[in-house]
Amino acid sequence: MLLEQKTTDFLEQLSSSAPIPGGGGASAAVGAFASALGLMVTNLTVGKKKYADVEEEMYELKAKCDQLQKDFLRLIERDAEVFEPLSKAYGMPKETEEEQAEKEKVMEAALKNAAEAPLCIMKTIVDTMEMIRVLGEKGSRLAVSDAGVAILFAQAALEGASLNIFINTKMMKDQEEAERLNYLADQLIATGKELKETTYDAVLKGIRP
After folding, report:
1. Spatial separation of the C-alpha atoms in residues 76 and 93, rounded to whole Å
2. How far apart are CA 188 and CA 121, in angstroms?
3. Of 100, 161, 166, 207, whose CB is crowded by the most CB atoms within 10 A?
4. pTM score, two decimals?
């Protein structure tokens, strides 16, 4: 199981010629790092008298970040799972009209599933970015730079996951479904960019001399 690997093992497999994990799984992994940094900010905030007024909110964010991190680990696995049927579909015979029709049918379903997985990654990343925005504003000032790193990681993961949608929707025959998936991805990118800019600018303003 990919989510049970050590980081070094995951990186070794990622850098190999094996088809999985790939860009989608890597994007989910980077999202997990972003949520882990968010979790660290909450841990450095709770229990401090200076932040007593936001302690209850920090505990809520702590639980959410912890769940998001678990979600990302499952999404690494999910991204790998949906690629296998697509890989097999590429190798299906297409000598006869019947084989061509069957291959096209299987390919279409596989492409849709392969695009849906990174879309789930993107949605989870945007949820994470919402958490990070609040942490950058209300979390410990000693860890505000970590909130900044987290939002940058999340932005990279978000746009990375989107590429794994677009490469699949480009090959889909069902243009209506492809456009729907592309639209959802574009909306998430736009939301993420706004969250990144707002959070990063506030962090930088607060720490740079």
Report:
1. 30
2. 11
3. 161
4. 0.91
DSSP state of 200: H
95 CB-near residues (< 8 Å, 6+ apart): none
Q: Report d(CA 67, CA 75) in Å as an integer.
A: 12
Q: Which two tokens stand for residue 23?
A: 């860009």
Residue 43 CB contacts under 8 Å (≥ 6 apart), including other chains: 62
How far apart, in Å, are the Cα atoms of 181 and each of 5, 10, 94, 135, 186? 31, 29, 28, 30, 9
Beta-carbon contacts of 142 under 8 Å, excluding residues fewer than 6 positions away, are 44
Say whether 19 sits in a helix, a strand or coil: coil
pLDDT tens-digit map of 124-173: 999 999 999 999 999 999 999 999 999 999 999 999 999 999 999 999 99
pLDDT tens figures, 37-82:
999 999 999 999 999 999 999 999 999 999 999 999 999 999 989 8
The DSSP string of 51-101 is GGGGHHHHHHHHHHHHHHHHHHHHHHHHHHHHHHHHHHHHTS--SSHHHHH
CB 64 within 8 Å of CB 36: no
Measure the CA–CA gap between 177 and 151, rounded to whole angstroms.
30
